[in-house]
């Protein structure tokens, strides 16, 4: 089951966003993310949060068929983290996170990257505008479906990433190493519509950007 989770940040349009929405089996929203879902013509099955930033009245939300899960304002988890947990409880086999990158508060964007790294039971991807990012825990292999000349950036998240081998990228690696804290893996380029990245060990963040959708 593909579940789309709307976080409370702003969301730039893009083909990746539309693809996620078209294939969604269920929509869950974190607080203000419900408004973004409505703006895209979708009704969340569940809305979770302390409702400090959602302006729509609760009776209207219930009338639209939304289940409301109210949580305390002071808590250990973010609303987005709780929404992702609910997605797992509803049987998600893959999750797309929307609205998890934009917004005024950088710490939430960084926190959502950490959530990607922590969720290992199902594939989770964060999509915003022309870009999609996801995390791979080695040993593992992942494919990148795009278009020749798209951009792909690789970032070690937890220590070094070793045994790194790439296929169909302009700057190739074969059993290579990316050191934690180094931006060496930024802005590689797809040479074919399909690329592959193999990780021997470590935790790797991948960011695939469709060059045709960039505002250059």
UniProtKB/TrEMBL annotation:
<dbReference type="InterPro" id="IPR036371">
    <property type="entry name" value="TPK_B1-bd_sf"/>
</dbReference>
<dbReference type="InterPro" id="IPR006282">
    <property type="entry name" value="Thi_PPkinase"/>
</dbReference>
<keyword id="KW-0808">Transferase</keyword>
<dbReference type="InterPro" id="IPR007373">
    <property type="entry name" value="Thiamin_PyroPKinase_B1-bd"/>
</dbReference>
<dbReference type="Pfam" id="PF04265">
    <property type="entry name" value="TPK_B1_binding"/>
</dbReference>
<dbReference type="GO" id="GO:0016301">
    <property type="term" value="F:kinase activity"/>
</dbReference>
<feature type="domain" description="Thiamin pyrophosphokinase thiamin-binding">
    <location>
        <begin position="146"/>
        <end position="205"/>
    </location>
</feature>
<dbReference type="GO" id="GO:0005524">
    <property type="term" value="F:ATP binding"/>
</dbReference>
<dbReference type="Pfam" id="PF04263">
    <property type="entry name" value="TPK_catalytic"/>
</dbReference>
<keyword id="KW-0418">Kinase</keyword>
<dbReference type="InterPro" id="IPR053149">
    <property type="entry name" value="TPK"/>
</dbReference>
<dbReference type="GO" id="GO:0004788">
    <property type="term" value="F:thiamine diphosphokinase activity"/>
</dbReference>
<dbReference type="GO" id="GO:0009229">
    <property type="term" value="P:thiamine diphosphate biosynthetic process"/>
</dbReference>
<dbReference type="InterPro" id="IPR036759">
    <property type="entry name" value="TPK_catalytic_sf"/>
</dbReference>
<dbReference type="GO" id="GO:0006772">
    <property type="term" value="P:thiamine metabolic process"/>
</dbReference>
<dbReference type="InterPro" id="IPR007371">
    <property type="entry name" value="TPK_catalytic"/>
</dbReference>
<protein>
    <recommendedName>
        <fullName>Thiamine diphosphokinase</fullName>
        <ecNumber>2.7.6.2</ecNumber>
    </recommendedName>
</protein>
<dbReference type="GO" id="GO:0030975">
    <property type="term" value="F:thiamine binding"/>
</dbReference>
<keyword id="KW-0547">Nucleotide-binding</keyword>
<keyword id="KW-0067">ATP-binding</keyword>
């Amino acid at each position: 089951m593909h579940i789309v989770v709307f976080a409370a940040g702003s969301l730039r349009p893009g083909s990746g966003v539309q693809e996620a929405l078209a294939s969604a089996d269920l929509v869950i929203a974190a607080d203000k993310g419900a408004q973004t879902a409505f703006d895209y013509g979708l009704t969340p099955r569940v809305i979770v949060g302390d409702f400090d930033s959602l302006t729509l009245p609760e009776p209207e939300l219930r009338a639209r068929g939304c289940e409301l899960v109210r949580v305390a304002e002071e808590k250990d988890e973010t609303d987005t983290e709780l929404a992702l947990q609910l997605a797992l409880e509803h049987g998600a086999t893959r999750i797309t996170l929307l609205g998890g990158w934009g917004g005024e508060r950088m710490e939430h964007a960084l926190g959502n990257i950490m959530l990607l790294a922590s969720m290992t039971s199902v594939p989770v991807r964060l999509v915003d505008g022309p870009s999609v990012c996801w995390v791979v825990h080695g040993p593992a292999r992942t494919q990148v479906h795009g278009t020749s000349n798209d951009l792909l950036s690789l970032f070690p998240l937890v220590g070094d990433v070793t045994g790194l081998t790439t296929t169909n990228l302009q700057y190739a690696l074969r059993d290579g190493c990316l050191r934690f804290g180094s931006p060496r893996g930024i802005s590689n380029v797809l040479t074919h519509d399909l690329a592959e990245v193999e990780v021997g060990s470590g935790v790797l963040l991948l960011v695939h950007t469709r060059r045709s959708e960039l505002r250059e």
